[in-house]
Amino acid sequence: MAVQDIINYSYQDIFTLSVVQFEKACVFSKPEQVNEYSIYWIKKGKGVYNIDFENYEFQDNILFFLSPGQVFSVASEEIEEAYRLTFVRDFYCIQTHDREVACNGILFNNIYETPFVKPCESDTQKLKFILESLIEEFKTSEAAQYDMLQAYLKQFIIHAVRVKKEHHVIKQDAETKLFKDFSVLVEQNYKTLHTVTDYAGRLGISPKSLTKHFNKMGTQTPSDFIKNRIILEAKRQLIYTNQAVKHIAYDLGFNDSAYFSRFFTKATTKSPLQFKKEY
Question: What angle do CA 49, 51, 53 make, to 5 degrees?
Fold first, then answer.
């Protein structure tokens, strides 16, 4: 996207709305690590985006959500109309609102599912109205602007959650709850806890029982889940830090950097240095 084709509205560098309206093909090859919570609404356009080293193809009217730390790049895109909302945790904390609107793990911090949400026509009109209200508020300098902007952002997120729940199956059974509890624990502890036994103990069940629950869901094993999260963070650090492989290994809980290199190579078929060089 060319800078001159983007209109930016910003509030104190903590909340920004970008409006994109042009018709050009564009290709980005350099991945970037996301530093803020981001909502993209590609209202009209098509392309291929790479999120956390996976390619996702889209065409017209899709929403997707990125959390800090995720890796994003554009493989190809041709956009006529799009919007991007970015905000920091201090402006709107996803974790705080998780119980209220269930956005944590459904929209954000969900690195294990396809990130796109596709609204229907009526949902599109509601989201458009919220964005138009946001733009109008950005242009004013009235009292309590912070509160108004936050309220509109919350409305947008709540409606996106409703769209996701209406058009995508979100299970609420025991296996699904256990999966989410397990994934949250892994997200919090993957740098220090590497075994299924570690997590099963904290969930109050046996490793064998945890594996059975995962088998019922037809998903990857708990062991693979933990391994894949470690590998994802290793990839991120290899690309976006200047740390030596041994320091990345130690940060991820490996006392032996040679063992970490074998672990990474087995999972990706490339050594850490090969992977870093390719990107």
Answer: 110
pTM score = 0.71
132-182 pLDDT, tens digit per residue, is: 999 999 998 778 899 999 999 999 999 988 888 776 655 555 667 788 788
Judged by DSSP in three states, 194 sits in coil
How many CA atoms within 13 Å lie on the side-chain side of 76? 6
In one-letter notation, the amino acid at residue 112 is: Y
pLDDT single digits (tens) 251-262: 999 999 999 999
CA–CA distance, 152 with 139 (Å, rounded to integer): 14
CATH 2.60.120.10 residue ranges in the chain?
3-167
CATH 1.10.10.60 domain residues, the chain: 174-278
Alpha-carbon distance of 42 to 20, in angstroms, equals 9
Could you tell me the fold of the domain covering 3-167?
Answer: Jelly Rolls (2.60.120)
Token code pair at residue 273: 């240095």
